[in-house]
Amino acid sequence: MTNPMRGIRLEKAVVNIGVGDAGERLLKAEKVLHMVTKRKPVRTIAKTTNRDFGIRRGMDIGVKVTLRGKDAEEFVKTALWTRENRLAEYSFDPEGNFSFGVQDYTDFPGMKYDPEIGIFGLDISVALSRPGRRIARRRTLRRSLPTYHRITRHEGVEFIRSKFNTEVVE
Hints:
single chain, alpha+beta, 5-stranded antiparallel β-sheet, 3 helices
């Protein structure tokens, strides 16, 4: 019998499009994210000023959508399908979380190219966790997560291989 507290689950998936400037491209990116995720996107704001890119602090530079639960699992499954169920091993961080990109939103099933919008790629970051992770995030009696309860890179790779039938390439 296995311990249910040792099971790994997909906590959330964040879908992001970084545009780099406010204006018409940002509105188009919002439209693309809404079409792909069926959720209302939230704008991301620049934290610093970068004159080389023409970015000022406080300026809207991108959009994102956070998915949790079954919605996150379904979206990650279709996003991995667009990548032909292949991920590079360097996509995983030491805590087992992983990120990957999709070159064009039209790769998703049911999406057609709209010349008015153009081509937009998107980044997907997926966070994995175990039950009991709340002790590190709660407000009262916060404790650090024990080392043996953390997810390693190898465990994250094994979870993706088994759950989503994905090939992890080195």
